[in-house]
Amino acid sequence: MATREKTTLATSRLEHRYVEDLGPGSGRSAPRAAPRSDAAVLGLDGEWRFRLAAGLHDTAEGFEDPAFEAGAWDLIAVPSMWQMHDLDGEAPYGKPQYTNIHYPFPVDPPRVPDANPTGEYRRSFTLPDEWPEGGRTLLRFEGVDSCFAVWLNGVRLGDGKGSRLPTEFDATVHLRPGENTVAVRVHQWSAGSYLEDQDTWWLSGIFRPVSLLHRPEGGLDDVFAHAGYDHAAGLGTLMVEATAAGRVSVPELGIDIATGESATVPVEPWTAETPRLYDAVVATATERVSLRVGFRTVAVEDGVLKVNGRPILLRGVNRHEWDPDTGRTLSVETMRRDIEIMKRHNVNAVRTSHYAPDRRFLELCDELGMWVIDECDLETHGFGHYGWRENPANDPKWREACLDRMARMVERDKNHPSVIMWSLGNECNEGENLEAMAAWAKQRDASRLVHYEGDYDSPYVDVYSRMYVPHDELDGIGRREEEPTRDPAHDAHRRSLPFILCEYAHAMGNGPGGLADYQRLFERHERCAGGFVWEWIDQGVRRRTEDGREWFAYGGDFGEILHDGNFITDGLVFSDRSPSPGLVEYKKVIEPVRIVIDSGERTIAVANGHDFADTSHLRFTWRFEDGGEEIASGGLEVPVVAAGGSVRVVWPEELRKAAATAAGEGWVTVRALLDGEMAWAEAGHEIAWGQAPLPHPQAPPVIGAGVAPAAVAAGYRLGGAEFDALGRLTSFGGIEIEGPRLDLWRAPADNDRVAWGGLSTAAHWRERDMALDRLEHKVLDVEAGGGGLTVSTRVGAGGARIGMSAQYAWSYDPEAAKLWLTVSVAPEGEWAHPLPRLGVRLAVPKDLDAVTWFGGGPGEAYTDTRAAARIGRYEATVGEMQTPYAFPQENGSRIDVRWARLAGTNGTALTCFGAPHFAFTVRPWTSEDLEAAMHPHELVERDRLYVNLDAALHGMGSASCGPGVLPEYRLPAEPAGFTIGFGTERS
Ligand code: GAL
């Protein structure tokens, strides 16, 4: 018995050896583009029989045998990821796990744990009667995570690794007429997992489509369309390399040539702004392949990144493939939606971080227009924790696996005009395998640039790329004045390269701050070709509470012991793809047209920042508002401006006339809108805007003569305002109010809270000697004088020696029926860190839920995230003013608010007036509630509304991964004063 068991174990080890061997697979066909063709195809997506084994020791013996009885097994959708099933129910196939850098298993390459969830898939299919005779038939998997073996009719075809890359097996000799059975065994962990340590969820399965492809005798197994553009001559040159001789025709261009021959003809070039594609057919006697050809030439000239002879500016995002319900299995609609949202927000570039995406995404990038850095499925970041010892990227044992991945990406994607750079992978440090991958890519495809960030000396790449560098360093790089390379031999090369920030502006939670400051640098320095915000989408997993409320899970929400929390929700769109305030800000910051209104000269300057497109696709409108009310509007005639050009027009007569009537604060807004419909947006969609006030003096508030306070039983009365004995306002105009009192705290944003080395800003705020999260207010004196009530206080925390004196000077203007408050603060002791906020907080009745304000809007804005805030009059409910960050934190503040009115349904209203402005937040919970909650659905509304009226705010920065708040947006603790007025209405 003992012997038998031993034998079984040994046999199974042998049979499963591929899981831990370093090679990329066996039995596979050579990688190729597999272009669309008229050869027979049979899709094998749909329901497959499925069983999840606990590990290699637990597999179903003989499951590959067509006669195997799997009728009792579950049915699972292919493609899908098995951990994404029924997460609010039984979660029958395990749950997602999220780690950023750490491998979730012992680092013992190439071994993986015995607890290695293994999915066994089976399905039968009927080969159609008309399936062609002869030729070959390939069984193609677009993506299987992370390692798998395949059988057809009980015969093992081979195995593969490289999760986000295609694998094909030759099925020809084992395919039968009629009924066939395919069986696939998929392992969550494999040697390949060591190469796939990207910052995302660990998920498994056959997650991209599966198909059977006929390869006719004499057909076109592979084609490589070379389509360059000579911008000086306006000519495109097409040459198609093919594995079989055939003819290439592009009817629209009158091209009809043999494969291997080239034709040069006048064409419209392809760019991300003008994605002109030509339909081409490559044909042999037995097969017709269709291609969509885009003519363009990518080059580095004089250290500048150019396409078709012109410098380009990448306004990019890093995109993981993510769907909150299905993980990395995406529908084509979702892929299209991503590009539509990007284009609608002026994004023109995608880095496919950190693996080759579903191939259909690239087809859409070609069609809709997007510059793409196509990145190889390679990351070994976890080795960084161990000094990069045994790093697969630098170990000859892994060379074949690395090269295989590069070849599979390049071969698959080589015909996409949108792809302008091949990226070797992400965060693999340095290594000879990377160098070999670069060399291979260059010899295979000289028409694209090679990108890799992790080797700072950049010896074998064509662009200098970094992530998260602070603004001042970027400025230096832009001037080509960066520190020399460690290896002096590489310095001249690196200094000659264009520069990109392949990741910057970490979009985690509230922020990123400082986007506009980055953009100014990108636009200032010719060397800078722009950057890619990290990242496109919050990778939250959609869940529902028992009572049906939706929420999004992040690391740790599935009971994982090892995880990296909400670092996975750091996107410009939320998990449900609704735009975050960060995306709205980014849209404004990268707008490709700049509109500058000069209200002194009465002119409007329009600068076209497109790299290729003129402005003929845009129309312009103007609007004049007085005190936030529209007075007049109309169309604006702007001559067509060429890319890179600018024009200045004078204000239309009607605008001049309207402006002359302004009684209050006058604002001119000019907008650039799509004139006609685009594939990604409707006509009228806004691309850019500019705004300027009429020159008008900032008048100080008119505070009337004031009345004397009266002592009453409860405390004091000042006009319509009641105060308690400690001088705290309790009501005004019959509206119950608690506060206002000095408030310095904010629920730490991710950018306050997360730090890489050293204490985070929020940790400083919480330190015992500062403890801004638990301030106490001590009333020192209440003075009822002739002009009003003055309350002197000291604010400080238990255990802290430092404090802040705060004086509240109240006065009441009977004529205007306004109550005025001037707050004066002075820090006492050494305040070593900036303040989160400087303002007051008050609580008001819950029914004052209808908000109108005149100031910045419509969305939230902080000092360093305020580019998209427009001055105007806005309306919203309190609920609508909350931003649902996946991890609750400070949010929702409106900037530069002149006045804000909170109205109830019964005709009661409270209006707050700035002198001149304040930042305004109102929420149905407190900052402390926000801070305590882990997810938005845990926030419980209180019976009052909490209003923050802030004189100043600390910026957001991007310290959750990158630089903190720039000096100009920090809020130092120093003596300050501000004034706020209150008025009420009652029916
Ligand atoms: C980068 C990495 C990304 C992501 C990001 C932080 O270092 O390349 O994958 O982890 O940091 O969110």
Quick take:
The protein is mainly beta. The chain has 5 domains: 200 residues, Jelly Rolls; 77 residues, Immunoglobulin-like; 273 residues, Alpha-Beta Barrel (TIM Barrel), CATH 3.20.20; 103 residues, Immunoglobulin-like; 276 residues, Beta-galactosidase, Chain A, domain 5 (Distorted Sandwich), CATH 2.70.98. It is 13% helix and 36% strand.
Characterization of the model:
It is built from 14 helices and 59 strands. The protein has 987 residues and is mostly beta strands. It folds into 5 domains: 16-215, Jelly Rolls; 223-299, Immunoglobulin-like; 314-586, TIM Barrel; 591-693, Immunoglobulin-like; 710-985, Beta-galactosidase, Chain A, domain 5, CATH 2.70.98.10. A hairpin with a 5-residue loop joins strand 50 (789-797) and strand 51. Helix 3 packs parallel to helix 4 (359-368), helix 5 packs parallel to helix 6 and helix 7 runs parallel beside helix 9 (515-524). The radius of gyration is 32 Å and the shape is globular. It starts with a helix and ends with a strand. Mean pLDDT is 96; it is low at 1-7. Bound molecules: beta-D-galactopyranose (GAL). Beta-D-galactopyranose binds next to loops. Keywords: Glycosidase, Hydrolase. It catalyses: Hydrolysis of terminal non-reducing beta-D-galactose residues in beta-D-galactosides. This is Beta-galactosidase. One of its GO terms (molecular function) is hydrolase activity.
